[in-house]
Design a protein that fits this description.
By secondary structure, the protein is of the alpha+beta class. It contains nine helices and 13 strands. Helix content is 24%, strand content 22%.
Length: 340
């Protein structure tokens, strides 16, 4: 049963070569599919250090970090290295402590390959913590290049989740497996609580390494739509939002660098907070009223032929062409409404 759902048996995302900033949208973004970019960062000094050895990659990072305290996540022997909930879904299955970054890296290196303890430091802004490394991590496909984040750890698995922004993730040391599912598989992934999450984004409750088809029978459908690929140091993957993706670190020490970007002008325009508010607003309405609002949402949000000819272009406001000024004004209006 488990072998039938082995991630290694899934097809890999397409690979594209010859991608430049000029053709990135045409060759990659327009397809709305995950795309593997082999050798994307082959010339990064960090990648080259890691190809010498994983301790060399760690030493390279330690020499270039500001050594500020970071949250070191520790996963015990009973977790299998999978970031998840505790048995009662009332909290998490890991602990966290503040450690200087160099000390956190040393803790990871000291863990044997067969150690039952797993560790990670997640989502560290490079600009604030590795400013000597920042000039070496430019992204030639994105202009201007978004500020990168760095992720460090041992053999840890992040469950399937989605990002609210587009993502280019670069394996800088070690190996990682990316397993991906299209957004329409959300009903088959058994998503956990939206407001209690390991790292801010809702996660699938399915253990992809050992799926329980009695508890999660519809995962069989998600698996049929899944993609999975193993990436080496220097490889990258483009993940459109909100594709579901799980990431498993396969080496004793792993480094990932990623870049998020969004067409939203302000952070408040990201969709997850709006989804949570919509759930709160609509889920407890009487059936007739809720059905009426379903028509409103369909008309304003999901109707590609929504007519606007009856409104002059300069008077369309939020329905017209977005601008930073319009987005900021709407943000202020929404904040005022929510705080009444």
């Amino acid at each position: 049963m488990q072998q039938a759902y082995a991630l290694e048996n899934l097809p890999a995302p397409a690979e594209v070569t010859g991608v430049t900033a000029a053709n990135f949208n045409e060759l990659v973004v327009a397809n709305y599919q995950p795309i593997v970019l082999r050798g994307f960062a082959a010339n990064w000094p960090l990648v080259q250090a890691g190809r010498q050895s994983l301790p060399d990659a760690a030493a390279y990072l330690k020499a270039r970090c500001n050594n500020q305290p970071q949250k070191l996540v520790s996963l015990g022997p009973d977790t299998g290295g999978r970031l998840f909930y505790n048995s009662s879904i009332s909290g998490m299955n890991f602990t966290a402590s503040q450690q200087p970054l160099q000390s956190a890296i040393d803790t990871m290196l000291a863990a044997d390959n067969d150690s039952d303890m797993r560790y990670c430091v997640q989502c560290v802004p490079v600009a604030d913590n590795f400013n000597a490394l920042l000039p070496e991590l430019s992204n030639p496909l994105l202009n201007p290049s978004p500020r990168p984040f760095i992720w460090l750890g041992t053999r840890v698995t992040v469950p399937a989740h989605f990002d609210e922004a587009s993502n280019i993730a670069v394996v800088a040391a070690g190996k990682r497996r990316f397993t991906l599912f299209p957004p329409e598989q959300v009903a088959n992934l058994y998503v956990g609580p939206l407001d209690l999450t390991p790292a801010g984004q809702p996660i699938s409750m399915v253990n992809l390494q050992q799926p329980d088809l009695q508890a999660h029978p519809q995962y069989a459908n998600a698996y049929q739509a899944g993609l999975s690929v193993e990436l080496d140091a220097g490889d990258a993957i483009y993940i459109p939002s909100p594709w579901w993706h799980s990431v498993t670190s396969l080496s004793s020490f792993n480094v990932l660098v990623n870049y998020w970007w969004s067409n939203a002008y302000v952070a408040s325009a990201l969709p997850l907070p709006m989804l949570l508010h919509a759930i709160q607003a609509f889920n407890h309405m009487a059936p007739g009223e809720r059905a009426a609002w379903q028509h409103m949402l369909q008309h304003y949000l999901f109707n590609p032929d929504h007519p606007l000819a009856h409104i002059p272009e300069n008077a369309r406001g939020v329905q017209g062409q977005p601008t930073p000024q319009l987005a900021q004004g709407l943000h202020q209006w929404l904040a005022a409404q929510l705080n009444r």
